[in-house]
Amino acid sequence: MDITGASDPYVKVSLMCEGRRLKKRKTSTKRNTLNPVYNEAIVFDVPPENIDQINLSIAVMDYDRVGHNEVIGVCQVGNDAESLGRDHWNEMLSYPRKPIAHWHPLAEVRLFSCFPVTLIIKIFLYGITNWMKFYKQNTKS
After folding, report:
1. Which residues form the C2 domain (predicted)?
2. Is the pLDDT of residue 54 over 70?
3. Is residue 99 helix, strand or coil?
4. Residue 35 and residue 41: Cα distance in Å, rounded?
5. Distance between CA 42 and CA 26 in Å, rounded?
6. Domains of the chain, each with CATH number or no CATH
7. 26, 40, 112, 138: which could form a disulfide with 12 (CB 3.0–4.6 Å)?
8. Whole-angstrom Cα distance, residue 136 to residue 119?
């Protein structure tokens, strides 16, 4: 958040395997908002035999034109995640053709070092093995 009270948030998702980042993707930046809505899909191709070693690291970032972008908060989803992140992952694996949505708390942050804030993010997981085929079958032409 800058001195005007606005934020330019975006979401950065990293595909992790055994602690190493394999790939990363990010959303567009939403300018001057504290309540962004993205409605964007971030797709990673993961072989089914490797799914047990995969985790997603999700970071909400504040874009800064000068200096470094700030981390607003982070959460993990996957087999090695805490209870909610692991439960969400397992539910996605159990229902691979159904979008599974959960709210995830982000790490507590302090804005201007005096106001405690708890943030949450809603994440949809799809376990589809062939996303394009699924998309074409389920959208109207």
Report:
1. 1-104
2. yes
3. coil
4. 18
5. 8
6. 9-137 (2.60.40.150)
7. 26
8. 35
> Do residues 139 and 92 make contact, with C-beta atoms less than 8 angstroms apart?
no
Look up residue 62 and give its amino acid: D
The gap between the terminal CA atoms of the chain, to the nearest Å, is 41
- Residue 6 CA to residue 28 CA, distance in Å, equals 16
Number of H helices and E strands in the chain, helices first, is 2, 8
pLDDT in tens, 67-101: 889 998 899 999 999 889 999 999 999 988 888 99
Mean predicted lDDT score pLDDT of the chain: 82
- Binned at pLDDT 50, 70 and 90, residue 65 comes out as confident
CA contacts within 13 A on the Cβ side of 14: 14
